[in-house]
Amino acid sequence: xxxxxxxxxLIGFATLWVVSIIVYxxxxxxxxxxxxxxxxxxxxxxxxxxxxxQLGLDRPAYVRYFEWLGNMSTGDLGISNAGGATIASLxxxxxxxxxxxGGIVAVISVPLxxxxxxxxxxxxxxxxxxxxxxxTMSLVAVPEFLIATFLVLIxxxxxxxMPSIAYMSGGETFWEWVHALAMPILVLVVVVxxxxxxxxxxxxxxxxxxxxIEMAILKGVPRKRIILRxxxxxxxxxxxxxxxxxxxxxxxxxxxxxxxxAYSGLAKxxxxxxxxxxxxxxxxxxxxxxxxYVVLLLIADIAAIMSNPRLRNPK
Amino acid sequence: xxxxxxxxxxxEARKDxxxxxxxxxxxxxxxxxxxxxxxxxxxxxxxxxxxLASLAYTKPGLxxxxxxxxxxxxxxxxxxxxKQRDLRGQKVAYLAQSAAATxxxxxTIGEQVTESAVLHGILTQEEATKRAEExxxxxxxxxxxxxxxxxxxxxxxxxxxxxxxxMALVGKPDLLxxxxxxxxxxxxxxxxxxxxxxxxIREQGSAAIYVTHDLAVVAQIADHIVVLYSxxxxxxxxxxxxxxxxxxxxxxxxxxxxxxxxxxGMSDDDDHGHGRAEAAIxxxxxxxxxxxxxxxxxAITILRDxxxxxxxxxxxxxxGESGCGxxxxxxxxxxxxxxARGEIVLNGKTLEPALEDRDRDELRQVQFVFQMADxxxxxxxxxxxxLGRPVEFYLGLKGEDKRRRVLELLDMVELxxxxxxxxxxxxxxxxxxxxxxxxxxxxxxxxxxxxxxTSALDSIVGAxxxxxxxxxxxxxxxxxxxxxxxLSTVGSFADKIVVLYAGRVVEQGxxxxxxxxPYHPYTRxxxxxxxxxxxxxxxxxxxxxxxxxxxxxxxxxxxVGCPFFNRCPIAIPGTCQLETPPVRxxxxxxxxxxxHSLDEVEHSEAETQKVLHGYEKAIVDDDSAIKA
Lengths: 315, 628
Fold this sequence. Notes:
The structure holds two protein chains of two kinds. Chain A is an all-alpha fold. Chain A has helices at residues 2-28, 34-39, 45-55, 61-73, 87-122, 127-141, 144-158, 174-208, 211-218, 223-252, 255-260, 266-275, 279-307, 309-312. Chain A has a domain at 95-279: MetI-like fold, CATH 1.10.3720. Chain A starts with a helix and ends with a helix. Chain B is of the alpha/beta class. Chain B is built from 25 helices and 22 strands. In chain B, strand 1 (4-14) and strand 2 (20-31) form a beta hairpin. In chain B, helix 15 runs parallel beside helix 17 and helix 17 (429-441) packs parallel to helix 18 (459-476). Chain B starts with a strand and ends with a helix. The A-B interface holds A 210-212, 214-222, 225, 229-230, 233-234, 307-310, 313, 315 and B 52, 55, 57, 59, 85-90, 93-94, 96, 98, 101-107, 115-116, 119-120, 150-151, 153-154, 167.
């Protein structure tokens, strides 16, 4: 088993490395380099060349790539093209915001989804199951900006319970903070839960057809225990994977929700970086997002391996 | 009052449009305390459905619609669900056919065995664990105090089957329901499991319903037999009466399909005009296994130095217990598993070891027939397409010609032309197996590799498939490699038998010679393990030395010495486990790999016969004769 886990970790690093190549060289094929952007319209051939030399852009691309990669892996994210601040300082506060929002959503949605998924699987065909199946299917199908707009319309515009933007000035009390974040949290919980509920339900029901479940019924095991002890442990692999994908999405994919609620998170920073052609910033953000995916999926894979007794206890 | 009374039980399935299909049509029988009642019949007779009714359970899609099932006088079918649940595992316990599928792979054996008793509050966890360990001992399971902490995949199939008995017995149920509990096992394992069941049932004093299609097994374990056909009772009575004096036609048909005890001269060994020609396919010095190959040795060696020849038009039976390498040999011949050493020769031409290096004509000549027709046939394709594909690929036929060939194939396997337009799901198990055969025959092959093709079928259906194979052989001159763990099936129609043990050929030769003395000690164990349709056979067999010495131990694949050493009743310590046994020739093409001379082997055979017939004193004399 150790060998399998070790191999997964190696594959994780390899993935990150490939991604870094794509991110770095992908951005460098875009027209205009940092010097051109910085000098803008006023650029002359001489001033461009001078600035390029100063920024080190006259060296071959692979040299710059390895320098960048080396810096990245030691935690030095570089200097922003726009304004000259360190990228670490730009990202630090935004990343905190993103993790805060994502963390709260995860803490609410993961247990909620697994619970609802189990409930639907426990009583298949009942009104609860039908309502959940129908509801989650609708939510998966509807784009999230629509859900967000719709919820804002209800809770902020009509009922006026919550603010429509998640603005924070710092120094709020806990309840002010919850109040300010309530709308984006609500939207994200709704969006990510739908998929996780469906997957939990499907995973459990798939296992419920197995002979060992019938055996448990014939042993007089109560239905609740059949689901929680006999079925869940065999269905855990795919469920964990969907959870991991959704958590990764909470870090990288929430740009629409952040934009709608004017929440200053990392995804929005990246989009801003694209608009101002701040390549070092975009590269750093992209690497953080990819790293999140790789790490979460790695954890999911390892959890799936650990939950399989065949792999955990070889003959 | 009997313990369980089933009265006029009716169970129905429902079609999509709501019309009911009767599955069980008014069945009545009873089980007295301490009695074993066998429900016998072929698949579709409703025997499993009836047995599950004694747990107040039906498979999804079925429903009770009449009659009563009374346990201790109380009707189970009208009981409220909570009381039904209390009954299951506590008063009535169930043992399923495939223990491998019935044990939850993610939960330890101990928890699964004790779960029911603890949940029902019969025993505390400590008491239950203690009782489970007592049962492991009673069921002769190895390492009883650590067994509970292991997972199902860590023990063997035969052990799991006995563990399921422990699982059923922990709660001291009044009634056990055993659903084909030995059908999936090797004969040697079957004896062991039957013996354990019989002993435990007797010691615990519980009654049992024993569901099976195997009359020979029933004769060993049942007191009373209920013969079922199509959801109706055909005949019922005490075991002696049904076995020795069946009155109903269907019972007689079942008896006729019972696999005969393998003996010499049972195959219709008339010469079908093939003489001693060159081999159609031959394995020469094959060593094969799994994992990376270093110096001709795979990481895990399964087969070691195998030499087998299949003459044109011959049927060569390959037998041995599960895990002995039977299927691996077929996979090596087909090229699915390239061998590490040795070569496969087809019509005098050495084939490439790997499938992808063989040309299309070589592929055409060696075809594989898989065990499970259910999984081998694509459920979304018409039979016509399943058969048409190889016809087009190998013979290059299209359109009308292709269609004609498909119908010809259907005719060869004795199915009507209309089947071309059906899906596999519309066919019965036996019919699907015929299609599976027809698919392999599509390209006019030289050699068919049949891997346990009758093992999943009922005795009657299986016998028909064997008949078909015999006809095909006579008509087409195809050679068969017929893999089976069932010696009597192989003995009934093979020209030649190869006995594999732990990846090595221990004996091979013409069927008549392999099935008559001298035997390799392992062949003899296999032959004596096939149940006979005779009350008391089990007890007699358990008295023999083979059974005592050979059954309980596991198969070990060894690199040196004779692999059968640890189970052999006549092993020579110091020699057998260290030196590879010499291959001794006996008559024409009959080889036995054993350290004993064939005279010694034969002598020990005579001894066994005496034990079998109860001449215990004679053995003592014989033994002293050997020493002298």
